[in-house]
Amino acid sequence: MATLYTIGLDYGTNSVRALIVNVANGAEVAGAVWNYTHGTQGVILSRDPNLARQHPADYVKGAEITIKQALAAAKKSVRGFNAGQVIGIGVDTTGSTPLPVDKNGQPIAFQKKFANHPAAMAWLWKDHTGVAEAAEITAIAKKMRPQFLAKCGGTYSSEWFWSKILRCLRVAPEVFNAAHAWVELADYVPAALTGMEHPKKFIAGVCAAGHKAMWNAKWGGYPDAQFLSKLNPKLGKLRARLTPRVHSIDRAVGGLTAAWAKKTGLPVGIPVAVGAFDAHLGAVGSGVAPGTLVKIIGTSTCDIAISPNTKKLADVPGLCGIVDGSVLPGHFGLEAGQSAVGDIFNWFVNYIQPGAPTTASASSGTSRDGARRSATHEELTEAAAKLKPGESGLLALDWNNGNRTILVDQRLTGLLLGQTLYTTPAEIYRALIEATAFGALTIINRFEEYGVKISSVVNCGGIAEKNPVVMQIYADVTGRPMKVSRSAQTCALGSAVAAAVVAGAHKDYATAQKRMTGLKPKVFKPDVKAHATYKQLYRLYRKLHDAFGTKIWKGNLFDVMKELIEIRGVVRH
Amino acid sequence: MATLYTIGLDYGTNSVRALIVNVANGAEVAGAVWNYTHGTQGVILSRDPNLARQHPADYVKGAEITIKQALAAAKKSVRGFNAGQVIGIGVDTTGSTPLPVDKNGQPIAFQKKFANHPAAMAWLWKDHTGVAEAAEITAIAKKMRPQFLAKCGGTYSSEWFWSKILRCLRVAPEVFNAAHAWVELADYVPAALTGMEHPKKFIAGVCAAGHKAMWNAKWGGYPDAQFLSKLNPKLGKLRARLTPRVHSIDRAVGGLTAAWAKKTGLPVGIPVAVGAFDAHLGAVGSGVAPGTLVKIIGTSTCDIAISPNTKKLADVPGLCGIVDGSVLPGHFGLEAGQSAVGDIFNWFVNYIQPGAPTTASASSGTSRDGARRSATHEELTEAAAKLKPGESGLLALDWNNGNRTILVDQRLTGLLLGQTLYTTPAEIYRALIEATAFGALTIINRFEEYGVKISSVVNCGGIAEKNPVVMQIYADVTGRPMKVSRSAQTCALGSAVAAAVVAGAHKDYATAQKRMTGLKPKVFKPDVKAHATYKQLYRLYRKLHDAFGTKIWKGNLFDVMKELIEIRGVVRH
Asked: Which among A344, A352, A548 has CB closest to B425?
């Protein structure tokens, strides 16, 4: 029997990737990446630092180009490969990234008059323009429908579906009125590939709907019209135009259209799985199972765990959501996350250390003529690795892009303290890494405080792949071994796993994961001494976290700088 | 009658300057600067960031070289000038910068076996190794002699005389035991020039003794032996070996020795005034008078005010000191200060933006090939000037080197908050400038809270001279006009004024100041709108200041980041 393959399509913040995977063993035989062409690295920005949009034309063009290029690459690398061996497609995307569509399911940004209107674009996950709207949704839900909030950590985020739509209604009513419905990017792409033209025929994923749009089978799907009308009567009416068909990723939304088959060379009618968020399918591609936390670490993180839906689970305050079937069928999917991780390191290098050479070939921090100069990620990482925990006396909060879990508050910002007149960029860089590790620990603790035991942490994503220093610091800070997913493309791999399941190549997800996913042999183990110091530092981090992030904390911070100096003294001695 | 001149010798952190001044009109006819040769830019450092020492050989060599060079320069620039027209010398130095000396008043660092011993050097003002000792002195004084603390702001600093000596006694007893006595740099130089070889014959200035060594005529001079013995019996014994002769700057310590006259070409026996700290003589050179605050802004600041000693004055908590006659005879001298100002800007440019070109010739922040790169002071200042108050959303504490006034606490460190993923170096640079302005306002407020009315602020020093953006921000933050001293070398000028008084060229300081000092025509006036925004920001600064800097503050900081975002939104709109 011929080898069979599936394609995972992975829509990231700056680019889209197609990955062709052997369903028998998970071998990633070929892939292609295409950078979006609109905006700055694919993101349309403005003077308002909260605004981040994408043009949907990039999504359609990206699917075509990457599928074709990946197939061509597979033909070169695999003897006898032909596109007819591809039996299914899976799709994962960023989210919540909703976009307004017309009656035919076409993005209204495709209409000439809206082609450059920022509100007609896809509202990228990290768009925070809806901060006021999120607060309003939270306040009204708190009064009318507390159960809505209980499933999404107690606070509705500006990053999510309804905040963005309500914001559009207010600042760009012409766009809202021109839209028949709004769809998540994770649902738009499978719909486009399978030709589901009317939003009401769309099959939406429970992942996006459940985590970001307060959809829950218990209360009959999306928030009721009465609640939505309280926000705005037009929002109440919109509800009826959203699809009632919401499913887990164990089913297909339809078959590939003839038009798409023709332009890509793939067989007509092969199943396209229900779409889901990159992190959720990344967790699948990393072998997520009860007891395993998967951390997808990139510009931000998503932290995914699952728990069998046969057992009652408490609502966990601060989580992005608990949704039955959002990761794997038969399990509650629990999503947490940090609003910025790699983005903080990138900010420091690109904004605060501008002009560093892009390669690491030059000797560390010194130009050829011997003068010190700005440093690259590689140089800063190398120098940071030489520092001991506590040695710099610095402590940072990882809030440059707000705090997703456990505070669910976009109106927070970064903080760095402990600077002297001798503080170096490498010390700051390490403090920023440590801050994200403290944020990660806060999330793990929150899971466990509410009965979701974490016995294993699997990391994936660019930083987990490329930066052993970050992984070691995470192990030392959390006091837990850090495992790394075998695949460098777990999200795309997870999509390919979903495609394999809906195409019938494996009987269920457990089998498909066993065959197609795995871990790297290297495990980062915590150093006892480093962990002891980090325990002291984490106590101070938590004090800052609570002092700036909560209303209930009362006290002063008189000891924070002094204890850092104390720890620095002990470590340096 | 021939024109008469005096020489002001000004010992800074990195160099010494000699300035030749016409006593009739304050014209600065010639000068010379010599950089110390020991350590890094004249400062001996170690791995301990608290340590900062200087080699006394630099002091002696510096006097000779700069006097000779200044005289040579005067001969070139003033027709008919000859060294015989110089009628006196004044000396100002950094402080508290004590050094151990032998029975003959010679620095023990001049002995071969101590030539490289860090404890045998001068303990530079910014040496903070005596933090624990300062805390102990404060604690014991609080119990035994609360009056000692009342005159120095309530807390004895690690920067001061006794903390350093006690520290030396503990970590380098071999140095302490080899020393006959300890003298302040401000007293050492006049003594060396006039040949007072035994410490007991030294005339010490009341400025250093009163502000840094708890000397007060009311309690019989230096702290009593019982108190000092409580710290360490050897300290109690040291007291008897310190000079009992402590005076204001209206008298001379003696006449220039034949040896010094010979090597410099100056007349033998011309009077050398009692030495004082640079800031105090800088205040004299800026025309200090009751109601006028003089800010000497350099790497750190000293803020000097005076109040007639005929009127009772309350003790002001947090001030570096209130000492009768320490600035001008007949007045209480009040000294406050910020531990780092220019040093913070230098840290940011030299450490965090390394490798920027040293000239401002390149276009702002962009190298010739168009790539962004690290920025210089000039570029950052230019970019910072374009920002509106509150526009960055940033807020900083100016504590990278601790806090001198009003907290008197070295165990504090820098803080920056409000960072997003788009925060730029120019925004941070401006936030650091603003932080020092908030620190300056806190000092002005403290003076006025205790009845010392400030009706005029005169700035001097490198930053006041060179950076109109900083001056404008100070005006906008404080809501007060910022005046700038006419002289670019007010400390050296003040020393020359002192020399003119002790040489009898003017009948008193008021007359000498009127003739020899003045202001620049440009006054920086506060902008009403900017001041209104800064009032909001200062409230938040003060909240951070009190939360991290005091034990008595109770609350949370939940609103700080949110209000900054709010203000940013209003300003950008």
From this structure: A352
Largest CA distance in chain B: 71
Q: Indicate the CATH number of A288-357+373-484+527-573 among 3.30.70.260, 3.50.50.60, 3.30.420.40, 3.40.50.720.
A: 3.30.420.40
Whether residue A563 lies within 8 A of chain B, CB to CB, comes out as no
Q: Spell B160-193 as b/e; 16+ CB within 10 A means b.
A: bbbbbbbbbbeebeebbebbbbbbbbbbbbbbbb
Burial of A554 (0-12, 13-18, 19+ CB in 10 A): exposed
Residues of chain A contacting B424 with CB distance shorter than 8 Å: 351
- ipTM for the whole complex: 0.85
Top residue of A47, A158, A548, A550 to mutate, by most chain B CBs within 10 Å, is A548
Out of B354, B400, B554, name the one closest to residue A372 (CB). B354
d(CA A140, CA A370): 61
| Contact: B413, A401; criterion CB under 8 Å | no
Distance from CA of A485 to the nearest CA of B (A): 28
Taking a C-beta distance cutoff of 8 angstroms, is the pair B471, B520 a contact? Answer: no
In this complex, do B416 and A420 lie within 8 Å of one another by their Cβ atoms? no
pLDDT band at A357 (very low <50, low <70, confident <90, very high): low
Residues 342-361 of A with CB under 8 A from B: 343-344, 346-347, 351-355
3-state secondary structure A226-261: HHHHHHCHHHHHHHCCCCCCEECCCCEEEECCHHHH
Residue carrying structure tokens 């108190």: B227
Distance, in Å, from the CA atom of A58 to the CA atom of A189, rounded to the nearest integer, reads 11
Which chain B residue shows the shortest CA-CA distance from A563?
A: B411
Using alpha carbons only, give the angle B475, B559, A145 rounded to the nearest 5 degrees: 150
In whole angstroms, give the CA distance from residue B54 to residue B119.
10
Tell me how far apart the terminal alpha carbons of chain B are, to the nearest angstrom.
Answer: 67
A419/B415 touch (CB, cutoff 8 Å), yes or no: yes
State pLDDT tens for residues A470-499.
Answer: 999 999 999 999 999 999 999 999 999 999
Cβ contact, residue pair A561, B412, below 8 Å: yes
Rounded to 5, what percent of chain A is helix, strand, coil? 40, 20, 40
Mean pLDDT computed over every residue of chain B: 94
- Report helix angle B377-385 to B468-478, nearest 10: 40
Fold of B5-287+485-516: Nucleotidyltransferase; domain 5 (3.30.420)
CA angle B313, B318, B322 (to 5 degrees): 35
- Region B27-31 average pLDDT: 98
Stretch(es) of chain B classified as CATH 3.30.420.40: 5-287+485-516, 288-357+373-484+527-573
Q: DSSP state, A422?
A: S
**Token pair recorded at residue A3:** 């080898």
Mean pLDDT calculated for residue range A461-468:
91
Q: Do residues B398 and B439 make contact, with C-beta atoms less than 8 angstroms apart?
A: yes
Q: What angle do CA A94, A517, A304 make, to 5 degrees?
A: 40
A371 has a pLDDT exceeding 80: no
b/e code A487-508 from CB counts within 10 Å (16+ = b): bbbbbbbbbbbbbbbbbebbee
pLDDT at position B364 is: 47
Categorize the per-residue pLDDT at B357 as very low, low, confident or very high, splitting at 50, 70 and 90: low
**First vs last C-alpha separation in chain A:** 67
| pTM of the predicted model as reported, rounded to 2 decimal places | 0.86
Query: Closest Cα partner for A251 from A136, A88, A428, A118?
Result: A88
CB distance B428–A557 less than 8 Å? Answer: no
Of A347, A411, A561, the CB nearest to B421: A347
Q: In angstroms, what separates the C-alpha of A351 from chain B's closest C-alpha?
A: 6
The verdict on A418 touching B (C-beta cutoff 8 Å) is yes
